[in-house]
Write a structure and sequence with these properties.
Layout lengths: L6 H22 L8 H4 L4 H4 L3 H31 L6 H22 L5 H30 L8 H24 L4 H26 L10
Helix pairs in contact: 1-4, 1-8, 4-5, 4-6, 5-6, 6-7, 7-8
């Protein structure tokens, strides 16, 4: 199976580069404030792609990013099955990835459009994209741990999954105890998005290992 080895790297890097580029453009054009969004919580990721030139860049990069996401999960599921996972895991992972990619497109297309319908579309799109991608990453990490192949990147997979779950639980608790949670919500969104994309970059190095090299289809 000649899986494209650079696919995980592209899947992780394209969204990271896209959202930081759109932030810089939006800030330069005065649509969002200059700050460090990971700690200052000064703007949401969505706000960076709503106006001006950043609107075009966001859509031009995130829709291809959704395609890369779908291709990654397709190849990841195939690789997992070829390495010995004969259960339903690969199929579930593949479809979680496909659906997450679809909802990333839904969110991206609706971004910048006015009206309650588009606001609901954006909210549903981003929640399902985040949730299903995180679930696929967790399931992939679990299924990889069941294989007999040597995986030196596994501690990094686990660290990312633990960090994502921990921050996710923390945000839920903060929403309960904080009356002004909205003041820090954007920062957590940036952090969670970055952690989610780092998983794919780790998978790039995972696929380079001799035990993960596959040939034929």
């Amino acid at each position: 199976m000649n899986t494209v080895r650079w696919l995980p790297l592209a899947t992780g890097l394209v969204p990271i580069l896209a959202i930081h580029a759109t932030y810089l453009i939006s800030a330069a054009q005065g649509h969002v404030p200059w700050c460090f969004p990971y700690t200052d919580s000064c703007t949401s990721i969505s706000a960076t792609g709503r106006h001006g030139a950043a609107w075009y860049l966001f859509k031009a990069t995130m829709i291809p990013a959704a395609l890369l996401l779908a291709l990654f999960w397709r190849d990841a599921a195939r690789r997992l099955a070829s390495l010995g996972d004969q259960g339903k895991g690969p199929k579930i992972i593949r479809w979680l990835g496909y659906i997450a990619a679809i909802f990333l497109v839904v969110y991206t297309v609706a971004l910048g459009a006015d009206g309650d319908f588009f606001q609901l579309q954006r909210r549903i799109g981003i929640i399902l994209y985040f949730s299903l991608t995180a679930f696929a990453e967790l399931l992939m990490t679990w299924r990889l741990g069941k294989l007999t192949v040597v995986d030196r990147t596994r501690p990094f997979h686990l660290a990312i999954c633990i960090a994502f779950l921990s921050i996710g639980i923390l945000t839920l608790l903060l929403q309960i105890v904080m009356t002004d949670y909205d003041k820090v919500e954007d920062a957590f969104e940036w952090i969670l998005a970055l952690i989610m994309q780092l998983y794919f970059i780790v998978m790039y190095f995972c696929w380079q290992q001799p035990s993960f090299q596959l040939t034929g289809r």
